[in-house]
Amino acid sequence: MKSLLLTALVAGASVLAITPAAAKDHVVLVHGAFADASSWDKVKAGLVAKGYAVTAVEIPLTSLADDVAATRAAIDAQDGPVVLVGHSWGGAVIGEAGDSPKVKWLVYVAAFAPDQGESIASLSQGGPPSDGVKAIRPDNRGYLTIDPAAFPAVFAGDLPVDEAQALAARQRPVNSASFGTASVVAAWKVKPTFYAVMTEDRTIPAQVQHLFAGRMKATTVEVKASHAGLISQPEAVVEVIEAAAH
User: Fold this and answer.
1) Residue 221 belongs to a domain with what CATH number?
2) Are 185 and 191 in contact (CB under 8 A)?
3) What is the pLDDT of residues 212-241, one digit of tens each?
4) In CA terms, which of 16, 94, 111, 196 is 20 to 30 Å from 9?
């Protein structure tokens, strides 16, 4: 695999050498909206092969509070320090749950990173909607999914079409009210933070991801991948998580 393009966007940001994992290292993975815990399968396999204890949380996508509660339960179950990782909507979740004293590092993967008082809806008001946002469809219960016909292109453009279509078919709806809920905690203000920017992302554009990473003073890594980079480029995501752990 080609080496990652490591970019320190903020003064003081650094790239850490990757060393073998100790047995006590724990990684908790939080998936995004329109997905489930299986979206982490390739990353989880890579981490387990390197000696990490890994938990992929199945968040319910019913509310921010419910998703945070499920994540806190997974963190509390660990018997050592935790690297807490969030993809997409999962970034809002780890920002809240990451204030646990067990959480030592945060990793954002093409993820939202709201500050206190911000919601996904308020963050999305600053510019034109992305292709992915334009493809979101509500149902009569107030839950959202991505148009299956648009999903492969706007969410997973670097995956084989059949794999992207399979993801679209099993996507899980998210309660639209979750996106309007303001964050109370911003754990990235007090925890060391890494950010993996997906440069070909059509759901959360790369420039938006860089803005999040910059204000967090995160150590930032660019990965040439779609929003589904955790599936298309799992080795690159594993490297970022390892860097955070060490």
Assistant:
1) 3.40.50.1820
2) no
3) 999 999 999 999 999 999 999 999 999 999
4) 94
